Amino acid sequence: MKQGTFEPISESLIRQYDVSGPRYTSYPTADRFVEAFSADDYIQALEQRRAGASALALPLSLYVHIPFCESLCYYCACNKIITKHHDRAQAYLRYLNREIDMHVRHMGAGQVISQLHFGGGSPTFLSDDELRELMGMLRRNFTLTPGGEFSIEIDPRTIDAGRLEVLAELGFNRLSFGVQDFDPEVQKAVHRIQPAEQVFELMAAARQRGFTSVNADLIYGLPEQTPESFDRTLIQIGQLRPDRLALYAYAHLPERFKPQRRISSVEIPTAAAKVSMLARSMAFLLDAGYVYIGMDHFALPDDSLAIAKRQGRLHRNFQGYSTQPDCDMIGLGVSSIGRVGATYSQNAKTLEEYYDFLDQGQFPVVRGLALSRDDLVRRAVIMALMCQGRLSFESIELAYLLDFKTYFSKELLILQTQAEQGLVVLEDAGIQVTSKGWFFVRAVAMVFDRYLQTDRTRAKFSKIL
């Protein structure tokens, strides 16, 4: 396998940045949400949106969480319910319908949806008829715009070519396959057995059916993985050639996620091995013609994500990198997170509590955050670094009427060290993340995180390497 031309990363640098930190799918991050933010605050945000000029013309992103899975994957940190009882889905759909009705009541009917994503859990736990029922609910209450991105996460073990046909008929144009690793020993170690042949057959069927884009998820840093074993998975991915690829670092947080306690820490690759996997993955994928989108995403040059990167239109939300404008997002279902205006909100994390709120005619919002001006400034800085790898001081100064070098004087001093290490280039007009710096882009963004400056307890986050 070609190793590319990446500058070798020293062991000392790896040790220095082998720390915990946020992934910055939002800023402030979800751990900063507070229970003082209530359903009443959420209603106020929805109604302020409704009162805004041309509210119906402003597109929304819509996320629907389906929590059910038939079997447990040991690495999983998602909010899920393991069950073989598919009849539980019908009750869940009834409550989703109530939550949709409440949104329509406070926002107005016919809100334009330009991005729709079904996540989980395993959305394909739902039967074909149940998926039809759910899409019918959404189409009755929202306007799914032609040309929008409508995606669904696929567990290859729960679907066949016939079900792919149903997804296409329902309007889904993007699929995301959970691959993680093709190595049988790794699959056994994480309790997710799915032969590579199964994924290859499904991917071929998806292409034949004409889905706009097919994504594959990989995870590096899983138990029993080595750089050499992951090379073999990459070779198979090169043959599979998905339109997009998400390459995530495994976050081992057994104190937070009970299933991960079944994974022995001694089986997990070292930080140096993980960096090697990342470096080799980047080299292989770039040699294979993929465009590096940022941090954990790759795409073929003609995919809309790569086009957005070239045109400077890339954004980041709770699902990762996105081509959609920096728009509001409605989260439906248990544990879902939303963003409306300058607020974030999250639903109850258990079915019992979620159902109870809706039985009382209340939004199931249990926590959230109203962003301050400082939050908004720092969010703009962090997202520019995470999405474009470059920050223009002038763009922040004009948007927020401040002097960047004065406002962020302490942060720029800290960045001097990262500049000396070759992670960033400090220019008179801005900041540029280097090719080596992309390995540590979360560490670059963390410099501007005001909450981390005052709270050094980072164990709740995953390691950045």
Query: How much is the radius of gyration in Å?
Result: 22 Å
Topology, number of strands: 19
The CATH superfamily of the largest domain is known as: Aldolase class I
What is the correct CATH architecture of the largest domain? Alpha-Beta Barrel
Give the termini distance in whole angstroms: 22 Å
Portion of residues in helices?
25-40%
CATH topology term of the largest domain: TIM Barrel
Domain module count: 2
The number of helical runs is 17
The main sheet orders its strands as 9-10-8-7-6-5-4-1-13
How would a crystallographer describe the biggest sheet? 9 strands, mixed
**What characteristic shape results from the CA principal axes?**
globular
User: What is the residue-averaged pLDDT?
Assistant: 90
Report on this model:
Strand 4, helix 4 and strand 5 form a beta-alpha-beta unit. With 465 residues, this protein is α/β, with parallel strands linked by helices. It has a 9-stranded mixed sheet, sandwiched between helices. The chain has a 3-stranded antiparallel sheet with strand order 14-15-16. The longest helix is centred in the first third of the chain and has 20 residues. It has 2 domains: 120 residues, Arc Repressor Mutant, subunit A; 305 residues, TIM Barrel.
